[in-house]
């Protein structure tokens, strides 16, 4: 499943799936805090699915795909009542197309659980929320990210640009 508002930079990384018989019931976010006026911001750098069997948060398996190098991982957020992740939305700052503009692309994400509960990442308030993805009939079981590589001093870094989830 996908959304239509992902950022335009980078390439699709490898997909990573929960182990057979497991599905995603939790999520954590790798976010870089705002860096200030003259530094390069990247905002949302990664998303990690927490896989469980029957919604039990003790499974210990994760599925991650590629994540950017900046920021810290948040604590896992779990769907209540042994729920499962079934869809998502992205907050994305559209391209500025300015020579010296600091592009950030994806800044936050929301995931909807099978009971309708929404888990929202600790990302920045930059950009706009896009529409929700279609929902998986059963659950999400895998993830694939579109990552802009780390350019260092040569170019503006944006890290995570877009996201695809795979249904069980």
From TrEMBL:
GO terms for cellular component: extracellular space. Gene3D superfamilies: Vitelline membrane outer layer protein I (VOMI) (2.100.10.20). This is VMO1 protein.
């Amino acid at each position: 499943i996908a959304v239509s508002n992902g950022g335009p930079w980078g390439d699709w990384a490898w997909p990573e799936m929960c182990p057979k018989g497991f599905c995603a019931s939790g999520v954590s976010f790798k976010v870089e805090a705002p860096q200030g006026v003259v530094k390069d911001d990247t905002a949302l750098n990664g998303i990690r699915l927490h896989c469980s069997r029957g919604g039990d948060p003790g499974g210990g398996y994760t599925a991650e795909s590629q994540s950017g190098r900046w920021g810290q991982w948040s604590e896992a957020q779990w769907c209540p009542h042994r729920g499962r992740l079934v869809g998502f939305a992205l907050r994305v700052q559209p391209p500025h197309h300015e020579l010296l503009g600091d592009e950030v692309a994806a800044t936050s994400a929301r995931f909807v659980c099978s009971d309708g509960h929404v888990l929202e990442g600790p990302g920045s308030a930059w950009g706009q929320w896009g529409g929700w993805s279609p929902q998986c009939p059963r659950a999400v079981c895998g993830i694939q990210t579109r990552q802009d590589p780390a350019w260092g001093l040569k170019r503006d870094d944006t890290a995570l640009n877009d996201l695809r989830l795979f249904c069980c």
